[in-house]
Amino acid sequence: MKRMAFDEIYSVIEAAQKELMQIAAVIDPATASETLPGERWSIANVVEHILLVEDGICRICTRLLEKARDENRPAPGFAVISTAFADGLKSIAGEKKEAPDIVTPKGRKIDESLAMLNEAGARLNDLRPMFLAFDSELSKFPHPFFGDMSAAEWLLLAGEHKKRHIRQMKKLIDLAA
């Protein structure tokens, strides 16, 4: 079990968002929409997938934190990250995984996904006061690869997931060059 400050988790998310936006700013829409030979997704697909995941994380965290609020469970002042979740993140670091249908890209343009991703990021940031006020450990929601996860773990996943796919985007950019 590891304790983390919520500011630290939000810093990971914000740094990943900034890097993603910097990368996206230099990609022309035609390149972003091109699926390269041997690849399943284009850069635009990757960005849409990140959006779909982050939007889902916002909904899950909201639900879990509202449950803690309704049950009058105060926050301990830090995020608790389970060893199982931390180990799970490490174990899939280099693996390709099949995205569940609910977060499989449907073909949005990269500009649309980026705008919506900024909105999802703002909603996630709007949850910060709830993370600081209410328990984010006790209630869980299942993840398809990691099993039951707390709101704090889902929040950390938002940043770690984005970082994972930034690496994928960089690889696709290198392949397109």
Structural summary, described in words:
The mean pLDDT is 95. The protein is mainly alpha-helical and 177 residues long. The protein has one domain: dinb family like domain (Four Helix Bundle (Hemerythrin (Met), subunit A)), CATH 1.20.120. The relative contact order is 0.23. It is elongated, with a radius of gyration of 16 Å. Helix 1 runs parallel beside helix 7 (151-176), helix 3 (43-70) runs parallel beside helix 5 and helix 3 packs antiparallel against helix 7 (151-176). The termini are far apart. Strands 1-2 form a two-stranded antiparallel ribbon. A two-stranded antiparallel sheet has the order 3-4. Strand 3 (140-143) and strand 4 (147-150) form a beta hairpin. The protein contains seven helices and four strands. Helices cover 63% and strands 8% of the residues.
Strand content: 5-15%
CATH topology: Four Helix Bundle (Hemerythrin (Met), subunit A)
Written as H for each helix and E for each strand, in order along the chain, the element string is EHHHEHHHEEH
Strand order of the largest sheet: 1-2
Helical percent range?
A: 55-70%
Count of extended strands: 4
CATH class: Mainly Alpha
Give me the number of helical elements: 7
CATH architecture: Up-down Bundle
| First and last CA, distance | 43 Å
Largest sheet: 2 strands, antiparallel
Total domain modules:
1
